[in-house]
Amino acid sequence: MIERIGRRSEQEGYSKSRLPAWSAEEVEFVRGTHDYFGLNIYTALAVQGIDEPGFGGSASYYNDKGTSTSSRADWTKSVASWLVSYPYGMRGLLNYVWNHYTPGEIYVTENGWASEADISDQLRVDYLQGYLSNMLDAILEDGVQVSGYTTWSLMDNFEWARGYTALANDELGDATKIFPDNFFIGVGSAAYQVEGAWDIDGKGPSWWDYYLNQGISRTADGKNGNEAADHYHKYKEDIDIMKNIHAEYYRFSISWSRILPTGFANETNQAGIDHYLDVLRTLKENNISAAVTLYHWDLPENLEQYGGWLNEQTAVWFGEYARLAFELFGEYVDYWLTINEPHVFCLGGYGSYNGMGFMSPGQSDPNATKIYQCSKVALLAHATAYHIYDEEFRARQGGKITLVTDSSWYEPISNDTKDLEAWDRELQFQLGWFAHPVYLGNWPQVMIDRIGERSKGEGFATSRLPELSPEEIDFIKGTFDYFALNTYSSTLIGWADDAPISEPSYDLDTCVYATSDPSWQAAEVGYVVSWPMGIRKLVNWINDNYNPGEIFVTENGWTSDDSLEDNDRYVYLNGYLKNILDAIYLDNVPVTHYTVWALLDTFEWGSGYTVKFGLIDVDFESENKTRTYKQSARWFKTVAQHRCLGTLAARKFPDEFLFGAATSAYQIEGAWNEDGKGENIWDKFLHDASKFSIAWSRILPNGTINSINRKAIDHYAKLIKGLVEAGIEPLITIYHWDMPEYISQLGGLLNIQFVDYFEDFARLLFQEYGSYVKYWFTINEPHAVCSGGYGSTLVAPGLNLVGDGLYQCSYILLKAHARVYHIYDEEFKPNYGGKVGMALNTNWFDPTTDTAEDIEAQERVLQFMASFLMCLGWWANPVFLGNWPQIMIERIASRSALEGFARSRLPVFTQEEIEYINGTSDFFGLNSYKVYDVSNSESPIGSPSYRLDMGATWDSTNPQSRPEKFRSLIKFINGRYQPGSIMISENGLQTDDHLDDQDRISYMSGFLNSVLDAIELDNINVFGYTAWSLMDNFEWGSYEPKFGLIRVDFESANKTRTWKDSARWYQNLIATRSLEN
């Protein structure tokens, strides 16, 4: 500064520098006037030098600097133009200050984010978390002494020149995330949408059964609810799911025509009654409360013949149905809901309203009178049921009852008087239409006035909105014990000039301009967008206008595609639930229940099965209607179990879960045997387990028992004992691809004597180390051994015997494995109690398309074989089920015969061999890394090849991570082979040579989340995870692939080890047994 400003000042014509000079006394007076360094940091800039600015014009601080600054496109921007998020800038600046000024300690005195006036300030959370994380890196890894951190700011401020437009507050604390004691979270469904069983056990047809079984396509996919999710037969499985995810209550509906087939109370169906009694009893046995809807849009078809919801007598029949339900089921029900969303079925069923697709009974309403008549009858029916319960059942059952209303939040597009008038009108026509009569009495005045005026102009003698008599007003008013609200979305509302009188229409009766904010995320269906603040505003509006005493959110949910990784759903639910808690804590709104719609993917009325709302995926094409947990189900479980709202944050592994890192003898021992480096890293790094192999030729130099190397035995003994003393479980692989050369010369894995040599080696290891080792892997990746060594030239011994050599290898390896298993089981397990298994390698294969051919190809690959590093059924079937997979037996035999062989190229097991091999595993060891898209590929008969035997192909150059598919693989293994327990014996990512390996952290985190999903949601016993690999290895053909958590400098004499970021991450994971999402 002294030099540049002085030079530029002189060239600009000043007699002295524009920068005042300090006297020596001033320098000394100012210097050292600190006890700490106070640092305000917010943003970052990309800086570059520029050509020396000219000296014309005004002198400038910016010209004095001689730099140009800008913001990078990938940095997140705030509402303040100068403020962007680049969290590493915090660490960089703290290091700069520490190294240049050595202040002794640093206090971060301001750090914060500017946002809009939005309570849902996730960007602020992300910013603060990122900057704090980098501050901790500076403290823990760089040795910078940071003693304090101040968030700017506690509350929204007057921000100088920006006034009140840039908000930086951190008003809402963690307390708002904890559920009050009287707040409960549950899941919902409806009879027609999930039950199926439409015409069995005495059920009568509903109007939806009739409407969708006329041979006319009336839904988006042309389908109906005849089978749906088969909840009628699978309700116990579904209640188990509710229990597993800690749902506190279940909102479901009774099918009117299942207990009263004709709709009339004179004919009951005992099978239907018994069904619902068993549902309710099962819920009670599992401590799940019941919230029961009497009517969720499935009117008995017989009553539609009498006019349905246009006939006021339906209100009487509904009362008789309700009385029967109260009598039969009332002792099990805490909350009753009379009618679900009459607004929707009146508009949709009698006005052909297409907001959610056409609905039963699908009547048009050119005069716009049926919709209003329907609403009157529905209100009378509700009130009838309410009074019956209140007068006949409340005293002895003690439940609560109300009507279910639905509404989006309607946000005024501006504060203009006309826009506010339109906004209020929309709320009254939407929500007030049914709430006003129940909570205040009569229709909303704006509906009475507008529909009356327009009806008169349209030539009607009376209003199209039926008048409620004083007796009817009194009968309906006050028929609530709480407010039941279904809400999904938000809409911007503005003024629209009144349309001229023309055809009668509900939309013209309302007459508003509706649009959406483009920043609001849209769901898969057009009627749902995400603006979480909307639900807070809506429940406040309800509380202010109706004062119901208690609000029960009976539906709220998000629709997404068919993915199990439904992050958008739990982000939506998390945001909406957070705003409900804000309404409770900050606004004193009495919300007591929150229902996620829906437990299962359902039949979604006019949308058919094209719309997915479920926490649980349902495979509607499968005979069993298979259920699979989505990520959102895990979110729900975490939230419900802990009664605390958050993101998918720390997930705890079971206490007995083993974490480890793996190596193999040949891949590291060249460096590992120097100065004890390997042992020191393990002692420092691991806490649970270490998987490594013992070099056969180091113990038995020529591979046979007559040449024992005692020094090598002592070396491994020292290592194994050291691990045990350090509290680390040794996981020992007996054979990891390093066959003694002498054994190879004798024929290796094509010589049946290999089984005897392997038995001798294994018995020696059991004798020497059995008292210390609880987990043994006989063979690591036998498929890679055979396909790589005898089906290609990639792995020693490099014999390209693709037609039959690798099958002979497989036959001998399986017999060798079984021999060693039986030796341990009979001679050593009684004393040592260990377990023996085999580490099988496979990746997951997805069918490239949904065609039957590609799906069959997927099955062949999983059952059969794959490329150099992939297989499953080839090895698992003989060990866990007995014999080769049938598809292998048949396809190889068929192709062998066509190729001219006298017998199959696949060796035939005798019955004795099948029984000897079957069951020779105490757990399933799984090595897995990637996902491939597989497709059918039948090849003509030619040269024999195991790839052609399989009849499938995939792009081996384009593997995918897709960690969510790891769960699919674990489920497949558990379901197909039922091994009892599974150990992930290898999983890792190959990267280039960099220490900042965030890609590896992301990869491992994704796969471990899938492991936890399998444990928590699928109840699969996965008991350990081994990262491949502890350190960078010789990866068979090359040192280039880097799998290690720790870098090894193979060029240095000392083979220097350096921890990568993934090593620190994994160390923290093991120490906390907690996985951050």
Automatic annotation (TrEMBL):
<comment type="similarity">
    <text>Belongs to the glycosyl hydrolase 1 family. Klotho subfamily.</text>
</comment>
<comment type="subunit">
    <text>Homodimer.</text>
</comment>
<keyword id="KW-0325">Glycoprotein</keyword>
<protein>
    <recommendedName>
        <fullName>Cytosolic beta-glucosidase</fullName>
        <ecNumber>3.2.1.21</ecNumber>
        <ecNumber>3.2.1.46</ecNumber>
    </recommendedName>
</protein>
<keyword id="KW-0378">Hydrolase</keyword>
<keyword id="KW-0326">Glycosidase</keyword>
<dbReference type="InterPro" id="IPR001360">
    <property type="entry name" value="Glyco_hydro_1"/>
</dbReference>
<dbReference type="GO" id="GO:0016052">
    <property type="term" value="P:carbohydrate catabolic process"/>
</dbReference>
<dbReference type="InterPro" id="IPR017853">
    <property type="entry name" value="GH"/>
</dbReference>
<dbReference type="GO" id="GO:0008422">
    <property type="term" value="F:beta-glucosidase activity"/>
</dbReference>
<dbReference type="InterPro" id="IPR033132">
    <property type="entry name" value="GH_1_N_CS"/>
</dbReference>
<dbReference type="Pfam" id="PF00232">
    <property type="entry name" value="Glyco_hydro_1"/>
</dbReference>
<dbReference type="GO" id="GO:0004336">
    <property type="term" value="F:galactosylceramidase activity"/>
</dbReference>
